[in-house]
UniProtKB/TrEMBL annotation:
Residues 262-385 are annotated as: Disordered. Residues 314-327, 342-351 have a biased composition (Polar residues). Residues 680-766 form the Toprim domain. This is Relaxase. It comes from Merismopedia glauca CCAP 1448/3. Transmembrane segments: none annotated. Pfam families: DUF3991, Toprim_2. InterPro entries: DUF3991 (IPR025054), TOPRIM_dom (IPR006171). Residues 270-279, 373-385 have a biased composition (Basic and acidic residues).
Length: 800
């Protein structure tokens, strides 16, 4: 085992803690097993670290064990407690905060106990550094004492021979093993150890086991796997137990022999090793105690408050040392071996009892008192075989028969004959019962086979039924899909009394009305080719043909199926129209396009919108035949200017005194005035208001108007190119009446690029004002001033 402090501590607490707890390492490789939080509150540690204004905010490090150390969970907790008592000597647990995280993801089964602690004493807020310069010298005695006590690998002596290897931590406890003599289920490793030890003890009594090699062979014969062997332990595993069990000390020692003692040489060498080990332990403990005492005094002098002084006065601070005094051999064996300790003691005899009944005088050992003597394991001498209980009873019975008279012998013989008869009768009954049980078992086997066959038959029926239901469900879903795609909703609506509004209908949107005043718009989704409808009167009335039928006839889904099946099975014959009458089919569009059409259908055409008056547009201009169906009003009294593409309305501009916008989901096309065959000029402006203003300033019955709504897209370029080619083919003129700014100049260059070669193009740009609406408003002001001046002149003449 070794201890290392990392050269970090100036960053954020979140980064340091998450590095220890996250599922992957710095290379992105998943840690297996995952890090395990042993102690501490991660969020509390993060908050403490981030709240400090010190440059060095935390200490972090690791206690790393060699793969062969393999500390148990209890040993890991003990080493954590010991480290805290050493590092925070003299402090209570509420005076510091520390986080412990266990890593076992290395390929060599190495256990690493990582820790991170904020560098602050919690009661005073002062800096607390547990690893100042020279920390290695302070913690070395603690490290050496732990390694010596547990026989762990030392970084200072990597080549030393080791005879003790602690086992793995507890795995999942098995619950099905029934080996205990009491017949109770085994729940813990200690139960397994007792059962295995008792079983081996019986074999030792019977003379089947004489040494540890015999123990290993016996365990293998009973189904155990020997996973590890050591000088004083065996680790075994069996599948029905489900976990490894370590058998330690006593009969499991490599040197154990039945009836033999350690040789003088072995005993002497073990005694010397123990003496050297204990000497090193006492030396490191002495050095560690002195250093802990120094740190305790320093911590008390630096962090003592009124509260901690009162608390410390009632407590005794002691270094985390281990007791190394020896104990009697019998107590040691019982503590280490449990039930095994009985096997290491000689079986008492009558002679021993007699000898033990006499008082034993204590021997004066001088310096060789029990705590100072090396321990010696005593192996019992070979004893003579003791007759078992049956043999004793047999000898007693024969002796009684020899001493009794003939009547007694006769009576005993009669009793034996009766006993034999009873035994034979019992055997006959047992055989008969066994035959009945065999017959019953055969019947149960037959019944079980029949039940299994019935179960398979039922499972097959259920499977076929499930497949049938799946096919039926798919068929019903396919039927609904056919309703939505194969039935022309326009035709079905006409069958229900709706009539086509040809003036409002476009190739993307079919408009129908009924006698009750309901108005619907029908289209098709480009994504799934479903027919759908929207009601202009009710926003909630929309959906597929299924929704159309349910909301108008109040049908459930089953009744809807009956209603629509004739329409997909070719059994419906139209009665409300002539055979030659064609039913329009809407061209598939996106949902946004159809939403725009539905919204636009709810607008009303405006003869003279108030917004136009504020911009200087006269009623004569707004109501001119040239601008019919180009200006609308919505429910909020906003002015609406529709944009068109080759398929109809694709979006609309929204204008008011304080608002300017475009339809949500719509696409910019071109605002277009009406066109007539006699038109000879085409005026292009940036907005509909500019087109109306230009017409009011320069009225001409042979001029058509287009507005781009600002900068132009590729779609708009294509639409403008078609309009240019059309007016050019008629021999007309193209007038570019754009704004007097950078955007207008850019638009002019783009329009010139798409104009056909040889076309007559004129530029009409305001001289001193930004756009044509400002020119119009300036002319209106000028005209009013001209009207005021003559009236003032006439007044002056009358006064004279």
């Amino acid at each position: 085992m070794l201890l290392k402090f990392f050269n970090r501590g100036t960053g954020k607490g979140q980064t340091a803690v998450e590095y220890l707890l996250k599922e992957t390492d710095t290379n992105g490789i998943k840690r297996e097993p995952q890090p395990e939080l042993l102690a501490g509150d991660p969020q509390q540690v993060i908050n403490l670290i981030d709240s400090l204004d010190f440059k060095h905010k935390y200490n972090s490090g690791v206690i790393s064990f060699a793969p062969t150390d393999n500390p148990t969970p209890a040993e890991q907790q003990a080493i954590i407690d010991s480290f805290e008592q050493t590092a925070f000597a003299g402090l209570q647990t509420d005076q510091y905060s520390i986080l412990w995280i266990k890593h076992c993801h290395t390929n060599s089964n190495r256990v690493e106990l990582h820790f991170i602690t904020p560098r602050v004493e919690l009661t005073t807020g002062k800096s607390l550094n547990i690893a100042p310069p020279g920390w290695d010298n302070y913690f070395r005695p603690w490290r050496d004492e732990c390694n010596e006590s547990h026989q762990w690998a030392s970084p200072d002596d990597p080549n030393r021979a080791r005879t003790y290897h602690p086992g793995y931590h507890a795995l999942i406890d098995a619950q099905n093993l029934r080996l205990s003599e009491s017949g109770q289920p085994i729940q813990t490793r200690e139960d397994y150890r007792k059962v295995i030890t008792n079983y081996l003890g019986e074999n030792i009594k019977l003379g089947h086991i004489n040494n540890r090699e015999d123990i290993i062979q016996t365990l293998k014969q009973t189904g155990f796997e020997i996973t590890r062997t050591g000088q004083d332990y065996l680790t075994v595993y069996r599948e029905d137990i489900g976990q490894k069990v370590r058998l330690k000390g006593g009969i499991y020692s490599a040197s154990w022999r039945l009836g033999e003692r350690l040789t003088t040489e072995t005993s002497s060498r073990q005694s010397e090793d123990r003496t050297d080990s204990q000497s090193r332990i006492r030396q490191t403990q002495t050095e560690l105690a002195a250093r802990i005492q120094q740190r305790t005094q320093y911590h008390h002098s630096r962090y003592t408050t009124a509260e901690t002084e009162d608390r410390d006065s009632t407590q005794v601070v002691s270094p985390p040392t281990r007791t190394n005094s020896y104990e009697p051999l019998s107590r040691f064996l019982h503590r280490q071996l449990g039930d095994d300790s009985l096997l290491s003691q000689p079986t008492p005899t009558d002679t021993d009892s007699t000898e033990r009944s006499e008082p034993i005088e204590p021997e004066d050992l001088g310096d060789r008192t029990v705590p100072n003597r090396p321990r010696e394991i005593h192996h019992p001498p070979t004893q003579e075989r003791i007759p078992n209980r049956l043999e004793v009873q047999e000898q007693t019975l024969l002796k009684a028969l020899d001493n009794e008279d003939e009547p007694t012998r006769t009576r005993t013989t009669a009793n034996l004959i009766q006993l034999c008869h009873s035994i034979r009768t019992g055997q006959t009954t047992t055989k008969r019962t066994n035959r009945q049980l065999t017959d019953t078992n055969s019947i149960l086997t037959t019944i079980n086979q029949q039940l299994e066959q019935q179960s398979r038959t039922i499972a097959e029926c259920l499977s076929r039924h499930q497949q049938h239901l799946t096919r039926l469900k798919m068929k019903r879903e396919q039927e609904l899909e056919r309703f939505k795609t194969e039935i022309n909703l326009v035709e079905y609506a006409q069958h229900q009394g709706y009539q086509l509004d040809k003036n409002k209908t476009s190739q993307n949107c079919i408009v129908l009305k009924d006698n009750a005043g309901d108005k619907i718009l029908i289209g098709r989704h480009i994504a799934d080719d479903h027919y759908f409808y929207y009601s202009v009167r009710d926003d909630r009335d929309s959906g597929s043909i299924i929704d159309f039928v349910q909301k108008r006839k109040n049908f459930n889904l089953g009744e809807v199926r009956k209603e629509l099946r004739p329409w997909i099975n070719n059994s419906y014959s139209p009665t409300s129209r002539t055979a030659n009458e064609s039913i329009p089919q809407p061209k598939p569009v996106t949902r946004d396009r159809h939403k725009t059409l539905v919204e636009f259908e709810s607008f009303s055409e405006s003869a003279y919108h108030p917004y136009l008056k504020t911009r200087g547009i006269s009623q004569q201009t707004a109501t001119a035949k040239r601008f019919e169906r180009t200006i609308y009003s919505d429910r909020r009294n906003n002015a609406i200017f529709p944009h068109l593409d080759r398929e109809g309305v694709c979006g609309y501009e929204i204008r008011n005194q304080d608002f300017k916008g475009f339809s949500s989901g719509g696409t910019k096309g071109l605002w277009c005035s009406r066109s007539f065959p006699s038109d000879s000029r085409l005026v292009i402006c940036e907005s509909p208001i500019d087109c109306l203003s230009y017409h009011q300033i320069y009225p001409n019955d042979k001029t058509r108007y287009l507005a781009t709504g600002g900068s132009i897209s590729e779609l708009q370029k294509d639409l403008l190119k078609g309009a240019f080619e059309k007016i050019h083919a008629q021999g007309g003129e193209i007038i570019l009446a754009v704004d007097r700014d950078d955007a207008g100049d850019k638009l002019t260059l783009e329009l010139l690029k798409i104009a056909p070669e040889g076309a007559r193009i004129s530029l009409a740009i305001p001289q001193d004002l930004k756009d044509w609406n400002e020119v119009l408003k300036a002319k209106i002001v000028e005209h009013r001033q001209q009207q005021i001046q003559p009236s003032q002149s006439r007044g002056m003449e009358l006064g004279m």
